[in-house]
Amino acid sequence: MARVKKEKIALYLHFPFCLKKCPYCNFYSLTLPFSEKDYAKALTQELFLLKSFLKDLIRNYEVVTFYAGGGTPSLFSPSFFENLINFITKHFNFSPIELTIEANPETLFLDKLKAYRKIGLNRISLGVQSLCRRGLKFLERVHTPQKTYQVLKWIIKANFTNFSLDFIFGWKGQGEKTLKREIIKALDYNPPHLSFYELTLESNTPFFELYGLEKPWISETKIIKLYKLIEDTLNSYGYERYEISNYALKGFESLHNLFYWKIKPYLGLGPSAVSRIGFLRWKNPPNLNLYYQLLLEENRLPLEIIETLDRTSLAKEYILMGLRLKEGISLKVLKNKYKTKILPEALKKLIQEKLIKIEGNKVVLTFEGKLKHNQVVAFLWDHLEFLKS
Ligand code: SF4
What we know:
- The structure is a single chain.
- By secondary structure, the chain is α/β, with parallel strands linked by helices.
- It folds into two domains: about 5-260, TIM Barrel (Alpha-Beta Barrel); about 310-385, Arc Repressor Mutant, subunit A (Orthogonal Bundle).
- It is about 40% helix and about 25% strand.
- The protein has helices at about 35-55, 80-90, 110-120, 135-140, 145-155, 175-185, 205-210, 220-235, 255-260, 290-295, 310-320, 330-335, 345-350, 365-370, 375-380, and strands at about 5-15, 60-70, 95-105, 125-130, 165-170, 195-200, 240-245, 245-250, 265-270, 275, 280-285, 305-310, 330, 340, 355-360, 360-365, 385.
- It has a nine-stranded mixed β-sheet with strand order 7-8-6-5-4-3-2-1-9, with helices on both faces. Strands 10-11-12 form a three-stranded antiparallel β-sheet, with no helix packed on it. A three-stranded antiparallel β-sheet has the order 13-16-15.
- Helix 1 links the parallel strand 1 (about 5-15) and strand 2 (about 60-70).
- The radius of gyration is 21 Å and the shape is globular.
- The model has no long low-confidence stretch (mean pLDDT about 95).
- Iron/sulfur cluster binds near residues 25, 27 and 71.
């Protein structure tokens, strides 16, 4: 009998707790004291209820990534994760290749890292943010560069061969020299993966209140120079910019995040987490009390359906996400899978403006195009033709 192919899905768990709220961050997280026990109860109840919800959406699946994000999941103990992973293994078809935990340096010590590794977590995404004291001060982070160096030694000692160092750049006072020094220092630890996110001023954050929409301390030209410096330096050390903000040595790309960028199915648990399975996208409310109440008192899933995606919105999403990747989007996939065509004059215009390149039947962003990803996407969305099935 022929075996039915299992659909691979990614699993995200949100941990909405932090030691302190950073002034630029708009992720859902609280600084409350929290109870591991309560959160474990709610998460396992959500997993349990999701199991039957999923039955109607996806028949044969296999969870291949586990990603604990936040907030600060590394505030949680190894035994918390051990119990959680055991629960998932028992109730889901769970054969993860990559199990990531996002971590902040101040929450880690050697024994905890060894215990995380022992229970099966095999990737750390470390919130370094900056390796410069001034940077950490401006970003109001609680750790120091020294703590990060110490933690990096421990990560290696605990046998994590896959880890990512996550940076924020474009903070007040950071010039090319400082950024270059930070990158070189980071490379001393041979990280297989690095992320560089430009500091953005998000609404509903103290930085937004203070500065508004524009960063008054840095010009657009300077920001472009910083992007170039990151790309050139990391390329020269063998890293590939496989996504706008992400660099990896070959084989160390984030499998979990590729699910988002490649429009593959993912499940998100915890307050504020988003899921997409097939044509359905849903979101949990960004409200811990409500999350607890719905799951533990009313015994029901907290999710709200955001949308039922039709082919048009999936095509748009493919363009939005796919253009973030080095491999870009395929005109053939767009036509055959999404029954959508980009008008030739639109492509021509973007080529003339040096924002995109055509490689075979793929559209990829140039360096300049990556700087204007949102504008390119909006322009393409306005120049689509939807074909009849
Ligand atoms: S630690 Fe991370 S998630 Fe928490 S407030 Fe700071 S940036 Fe946001």
